[in-house]
Amino acid sequence: MEYKNIIFETNQNLAIVTLNRPQVFNALSGDLLKELSHAFQKITGDESIRAVVLTSTGNQSFSSGADLKEGVVNAGRPLGEVLKENYEPVILGIRNCPKPVICKLNGIAAGAGMSLALACDMIIADENTYMTELFVGIGLMPDAGSMFFLPRIVGMQKAFEIFSTGRKIYMPEALELGLVLKTAPSEKLDDTVKELMDYYTHAPTKAIGEMKRALNSSVNSSLEEVLKLEAEGQTRCGMTNDFGEGVMSFMQKRKPAFKGN
Asked: Which pTM was predicted?
């Protein structure tokens, strides 16, 4: 697939996926979402990639959410069909990707743009930006996974307040609520993300993929089901080269040299 709405780059073991519609504040068109879904399929299937950064061009908006002009053009089509066709493959692609996916939030995340950020494993944000679930302002409920992610982070009561008011959540509050992992000044955002990615591109990727798989299931599972997930995942981890290297480095009292396999 030729990418016209995103930029896909690899740098050694790192993939960088950049939303690239700055002229419309990186609004999420159907074409952009299809390209994003394709990119994450490629990342999932490429064992040389050990970590992912999702970000955007420009410094005003990570994403303004759904491209409403495109929605007007497609008026009359059930919105649920649009979600199933365009949004669900992207959100599931990010959550099911067996690599850590870090959102570098370098601008405003609004509506489905906030959903996209929340689908990532961690968010490192520009301290001067904000997030907003502004769906209520156009008479809609949140979608693209926000109804799943937000209450699990902030609780039911706070999620309802954020959803039903559509207010802006500035980074000091986002940090306090656990919506973002870290914030940084604009000029230090790249360095903050790079420090984290330097760790993940040298970490035991298979083990981290198993952690992610189990975490995705644990929120809706019983203790017995989670214990089973742990046992199955640990069996797969125990068959990796990184496990052998980890044990050997521990015995030899040196830093492990994980290869991600």
From this structure: 0.91
